[in-house]
Structure formats: structure tokens, C-alpha cells
Design brief:
Distance between the termini: 13 Å
Strand order of the largest sheet: 12-11-10-6-3-2-14-13
CATH class of one domain: Alpha Beta
Number of helices: 14
Bound molecules: 1-deoxynojirimycin, magnesium ion
Helix content: 10-25%
Shape: globular
Number of strands: 21
Strand content: 15-25%
CATH architecture of one domain: Alpha-Beta Complex
CATH topology of one domain: Oligo-1,6-glucosidase, domain 2
Length: about 550
């Protein structure tokens, strides 16, 4: 078997910042740890678990919205950007969390939701109260169409028209999400300044950055043109859209706003990270989110892995397609799971979830993990009467409900998995007595142990963090193979996507192979590797080998 290195993706390492070495861990605060028995996670709960996170080996925690909110969209409907919902704690508790995280070397990033507020925000209360209210123009108001219907055909992701009639002032307001999430008008400079002050409020408090929500929706077509129909198999169906959002998402003037806000992160403050929720159907559409060519988001989230199947050729094509478009000096990232998408163990299959970790944590690019992935948590079936997510409730026939991936973190085998002393807001997984942190910490071959080993290998390895990457051709089908290389070190990753044993003879590229980690904790020695079904391995190979 003759193996060959394919195209080498070189990594630009001259201007590295701390966040280039980040492993992002998303905490969905309602479900992480409850401290007061109300069945809902809170800030004091997160503080109790910081030692766990530091020990796990992640270094940046992103916490979904914790602000004052009626919780119609579980915090993505903000009623006050500068205060904490009492259910989560208060500003003093937040300051304690931040100090405790920093003391453990963990960075803290919050969610910024600039696209919309809650209907309960005082800005919207003013805006809807009268046409001449000073806040009227902070939201998007339009007259009815001549027949009294909505101003155009724009649709809400969460179901129905994106326009809601507001009788007291006789106009429609716009919302991409829920009726309770009116959209802000980013053409109004006072609104822009107010949002800049929100950013400064939190950066002054010491947070390490923001993940900016729904940024692709920020600007809408100034002429309010109708959106064209989307094909049934178009990307937009992933988001429940029947129209192509040609005039409502990814608008060119959105990029100007992103760059304008970037100046706060990059010029007014030091060492803060600016992350964007930049879902896009093709990689080319991500480029402008980096700026022109840079100067925009440090980390425009790459969600391509959320919409693909677990197939070696597919994954390789996605990674290469992505690397090919990243602008010079830009840095890749990979999101394999989050609070909006089904659990990776469910999407890719339980037999593959450790290989997903191997891929995520050995590719060139910043990894984002979702809480519980490190245990192999899968989607939890939530019966109709216990469903909480409005997206799933509004579209009951669909698979859009997000409750299955938002169930409580499984800490131990005690009642309610150590998550709460009360009644958990979403049901726990049936398997929590065996799949939990306590059980897996004691098991040297558990998924948690595997993640921990991998995370610690990654953080100590300049090769995994900054080395070049090249895929290897000539390997058996279904075995994704790539080399990471830096200075005098070459690491090789083999991932068996298939359900058969696969033999890989590496002698044409290396005389030696030292096993660093196997997903199955199997033994391997030497350059002839016999992979078990669904096994993945990380090897150190000879640096001076011929190709
Ligand atoms: C994206 C968030 O991730 C999602 O949870 C939320 O429902 C929408 N934006 C609206 O804010
Ligand atoms: Mg609580």
C-alpha cells in the first residue's frame, strides 16, 4: 500500500492570540447545574462546576443568555441587556463567577442578542406605545398591504408570517423568530449606539468576549422586496424556511455593522474575542463575516458539520472545501453540536461519537463542544406534555423541537443526576444512572476519560494547535487519514468510519508509529495498524519519513 500526502494546509502563526488556542465549551445555563432547587440551572450552579470544566481541559466557556427575560425563547428574548434574570442570580453572582473562572484559567464569553429584544423590553414598550414615541424607529414597523395583510411575504423561522399586527398604532412589526421577539432596526443610529453601550457594559465588567446571536439576520432589504420560494431540498429547509431569505439574511450592509462593532472588541479593549453565529449554506458566504478580508468576527461559526452525514469522503470534502476559502490570516473553527441542533451522538450514531471527538479535537481549527458531549449524551425523548421549546411546539409535526438536546447535565447517579434537588425543568435521560460524570470519571476507558485525554493532549501540543494539515491518499475506503505537522513532529490521525475491521499499512510514510490515544483504548504498535470498527487513533509518526 503506497500512501501519499495530499495538499498541505499551512497555518499562519505570526499573530496568534489566546483565542486561537481556545476550546469552546457551550454551557446552556438552564440545564447545567441548579443550586437552589427550582429545577433550573443557575450561575451559582455553574460556579460549583468550574473545577470540573478546568479539569476537563476546555478553556473558554460560552454561556447562553442569562439576562432579564420572560423566557419565551428561553433567554433569547431579552428584556434588559444589562441585568441578570433572578432565576439565574444577580450581577454580584455573575462577578463571582467571572473571577472564579478566571482564577482557574477559564475565559468567559456571553451571548449578545442584538437582532431582537423581548416584547417586554422597555424599548419596545415605548416603540409600540405611539407612532411619535422616540423609540418608534428602533424597531421595524410597516403599514399593512392594501388588502390589510402583512407588508410582504417574509416568513418567521419559528412558523407563520414574520409580521404581526399591532392594533393600538395600526402597523405591523417584524420578527424573524417569535411574535414576542420584535426585530431591532439597525438603520437607526441611536439604536446602534445603545447596543454598543451594552457591549461596553459587559466588556467593562471583564468578560472575555461575546457570541453574537442571529447576526445573519441583522439587516433586511431596505425596499422590503418579497423573498422567492426555496426548493424543498434547499439548505433553508434545515431552518424550517419555505422561502429563500434573499432579502432577509446575509445582506451586504450586515458586514458593515459587524466591522463597526468589531472596533469595540479590537480597538477599545484588549484580548477580547468576537464570535458570530454565522449559519450559511455554502462556505463562500462565510468569508465576508471575517471582514474585508479581516477586521470582522474572529470566529465566524462554521456549522457545516451540523448538516452532514458521518461519511469519510463527505467529511474530508467539507474540511477541504472550508480550508480552501478561509482568508489569509483567518482561522477556521468547527461546531459539531449546540443548543439548537440534535445531539451529535444522535445525529452521527452512538458508535461514532468518540470518533467525532477525535476529529473535532485534532483538526486545524477552534473546536466548539456542547455540554454533555463529553459523556456521549444523546437526544432525550421529551413527551408532548413536557415540551418547552416554542419552535417544536409551533411545528409539532417537525423535528425542529430543541428540548431533546437541552436536557439536564448528568453529574452522578443520585436522584435527578445531581442536577437539581427539585423537579428538573426538562426530563432527564433514562440512562443517567450509568451515563454520568461520576461513573465515567472512575472508568479509565469511558467517553469522559477519552475526551479528557484528548483535550489535554491538544492543549499541550503545538502540532495539534498550529501544525499544518494534510489528508493522506491511498488508505482503505472509510478510513479518514490526515497528518498534522509542526517543527520536528508529525502526528497522524486515523478514523474508521466503517463497521468493518480495517488494516492500514503506514510503512510508505513512516518507519515508526507510537500510539497516543485510541477511541477504544486498544493497543497498537508499529506502522501496521489494525483498526476496529468505528475506532479512531492518534499516532506520533516519524518526522523525517519519506513521502
Ligand atoms: C439563535 C439561537 O441560538 C437560538 O437558540 C434562538 O432561538 C434564536 N437565535 C433567536 O434568538
Ligand atoms: Mg436554580
Amino acid at each position: 500500500m503506497t500512501l501519499q500526502l495530499s495538499k498541505v494546509y499551512q497555518v499562519e502563526t505570526t499573530h496568534l492570540k489566546w483565542w486561537h488556542n481556545a476550546v469552546i465549551y457551550e454551557v446552556y445555563p438552564r440545564s447545567f447545574q441548579d443550586s437552589d432547587g427550582d429545577g433550573i440551572g443557575d450561575l451559582a450552579g455553574i460556579i460549583q462546576r468550574l473545577d470540573y470544566l478546568a479539569d476537563l481541559g476546555v478553556n473558554l466557556i460560552w454561556i447562553c443568555p442569562i439576562y432579564t427575560s420572560p423566557m419565551t425563547d428561553y433567554g433569547y428574548d431579552v428584556a434588559d441587556y444589562c441585568d441578570i434574570h433572578p432565576m439565574f442570580g444577580d450581577l454580584a453572582t455573575f462577578d463571582r463567577l467571572l473571577a472564579a473562572a478566571h482564577a482557574r484559567g477559564l475565559k468567559v464569553v456571553l451571548d449578545l442578542v442584538p437582532n431582537h429584544t423581548s416584547i417586554e423590553h422597555s424599548w419596545f414598550q415605548g416603540s409600540r406605545s405611539a407612532r411619535d414615541n422616540p423609540k418608534r424607529d428602533w424597531y421595524i414597523w410597516r403599514d399593512a398591504a392594501p388588502d390589510g395583510g402583512p407588508p410582504n411575504n417574509w416568513e418567521s423561522i419559528f412558523g407563520g408570517s414574520a409580521w404581526t399586527w399591532d392594533a393600538p398604532t395600526g402597523q405591523y412589526y417584524f420578527h424573524t423568530f417569535l411574535v414576542d421577539q420584535p426585530e431591532l432596526n439597525w438603520r437607526n443610529p441611536e439604536l446602534v449606539n445603545a447596543m454598543k453601550d451594552v457591549i461596553r457594559f459587559w466588556l467593562d465588567r471583564g468578560i472575555d468576549g461575546f457570541r453574537v446571536d442571529a447576526i445573519v439576520c441583522l439587516m433586511k432589504d431596505a425596499a422590503f422586496r418579497d423573498n422567492p420560494p426555496a426548493g424543498a431540498d434547499s439548505f433553508w429547509a434545515n431552518w424550517g424556511l419555505t422561502l429563500e431569505p434573499r432579502y432577509t439574511m446575509h445582506q451586504p450592509d450586515t458586514f458593515d455593522q459587524i466591522i463597526d462593532l468589531a472596533r469595540i472588541f479590537h480597538e477599545e479593549y484588549e484580548d477580547r474575542v468576537y464570535i458570530g453565529e454565522t449559519g450559511a449554506p455554502i462556505f463562500e458566504m462565510l468569508i465576508p463575516y471575517y471582514g474585508k478580508p479581516l477586521g470582522g468576527f474572529d470566529i465566524p461559526f462554521n456549522f457545516s458539520m451540523l448538516y452532514t452525514t458521518w461519511d469519510a469522503a463527505n467529511i474530508r470534502a467539507l474540511v477541504e472545501g472550508y480550508y480552501a476559502v478561509i482568508p489569509a490570516g483567518g482561522w477556521p473553527n468547527f461546531v459539531f453540536g449546540n443548543h439548537d441542533d440534535h445531539r451529535l451522538a444522535t445525529r452521527y450514531g452512538m458508535e461514532n461519537h468518540r470518533s467525532v471527538a477525535m476529529l473535532l479535537l485534532t483538526l486545524w481549527g477552534i473546536p466548539t463542544m456542547y455540554y454533555g458531549d463529553e459523556l456521549g449524551m444523546a437526544d432525550v425523548f421529551v413527551p408532548v406534555e413536557k415540551r418547552r421549546d416554542p419552535w417544536g411546539i409551533n411545528k409539532p409535526e417537525s423535528n425542529f423541537g430543541r428540548d431533546p438536546e437541552r436536557t439536564p447535565m448528568q453529574w452522578d447517579s443520585s436522584p435527578n443526576a445531581g442536577f437539581t434537588a427539585g423537579e428538573p425543568w426538562l426530563p432527564l435521560a433514562d440512562n443517567y444512572q450509568t451515563v454520568n460524570v461520576a461513573v465515567q470519571s472512575a472508568d479509565p476507558q469511558s467517553t469522559l476519560t477519552f475526551y479528557k485525554r484528548l483535550l489535554h493532549l491538544r492543549r499541550a501540543s503545538p502540532t495539534l494547535l498550529h501544525g499544518s494539515l494534510a489528508f493522506v491518499d491511498g488508505v482503505p475506503d472509510e478510513v479518514l487519514t490526515y497528518v498534522r505537522e509542526a517543527a520536528a513532529e508529525r502526528l497522524l490521525i486515523l478514523i474508521n468510519f466503517g463497521s468493518q475491521v480495517r488494516e492500514v499499512d503506514l510503512r510508505s510514510i513512516t518507519a515508526t508509529a507510537e500510539l497516543l490515544l485510541s477511541s477504544h483504548f486498544a493497543e497498537h504498535s508499529g506502522p501496521h495498524v489494525r483498526l476496529q470498527p468505528h475506532e479512531s487513533v492518534l499516532l506520533r509518526i516519524a518526522a523525517d519519513a519519506q513521502e
